[in-house]
Amino acid sequence: MASVFRRRRFSLILILLAAMLAWWLSRGPEDLLFTPQPLLRHEPDYFLDDFSLVVAADDGSPRYRMTGLSMTHYPDTDSALVEQPRLEIVVADGGRWVVTAQQAQAESNGDFVHLQGNVSIHRDDGEITGLALETESLDVNVAEEYAVSDQEVMIRQPFGVTRAQGLRINFRQRHLYLISRVRGEYALPSD
């Protein structure tokens, strides 16, 4: 009787081993051996020249526009390098903030844009005339409608110039915060 139990146990073990071997072989050669993923090189996968891009809000109205001389997309970082960008941020009150620079890097979804080199900012709605901001570097969160810079900024107005170290702009609320070392030169307009 003991030999019958041994034979059954041995047969059960053989069946289990055969089932495990069949399952292991059915997974295919790609699962059996470790195949390293190819390294993505920092090479562009597409280019655009003299482009215009419009991103719409949920209701179909334009949220922002970006135009530029050229755009190069890199798949390894899912980012785009833009030459001579012009970014127009359309806010809820219908006003537009216009930001230009020599170069920009946009993140994958386009909501974060880092602008560099002769960055210029102004509101284009007819209400505030002659106000222009200049800095060397600006990070814009288009989705949240704000921008920050830790660089020196110069604000030119018809009646004077203000300089500061760093700024924050809330485009939606039309608030401009100067961070530190704020100084200005103003002249009263002559009548």
Task: Give an account of the 3D structure.
The structure is a single chain. The protein is of the alpha+beta class and 191 residues long. The protein has 2 domains: 2-32; 46-185, Sandwich (lipopolysaccharide transport protein A fold). It has 2 helices and 11 strands; from the N terminus they run ααβββββββββββ. Strands 2-3-6-7-5-4 form a 6-stranded antiparallel barrel. Strand 2 and strand 3 form a beta hairpin. The radius of gyration is 30 Å and the shape is elongated.
In summary, what is this structure?
The protein is α+β, with helices and mostly antiparallel strands and 191 residues long. The chain is built from 2 helices and 11 strands; from the N terminus they run H-H-E-E-E-E-E-E-E-E-E-E-E.
Total domains: 2
Distance between the first and last residues' Cα:
121 Å
What is the mean predicted local confidence, pLDDT? 82
* Major sheet details: 6 strands, antiparallel, barrel
Structural topology:
Layout: H1 2-26, H2 29-32, E1 46-56, E2 62-74, E3 79-83, E4 86-90, E5 96-100, E6 103-106, E7 112-123, E8 132-141, E9 146-157, E10 160-170, E11 175-186
Antiparallel strand pairs: 1-2, 2-3, 2-4, 3-6, 4-5, 5-7, 6-7, 7-8, 8-9, 9-10, 10-11
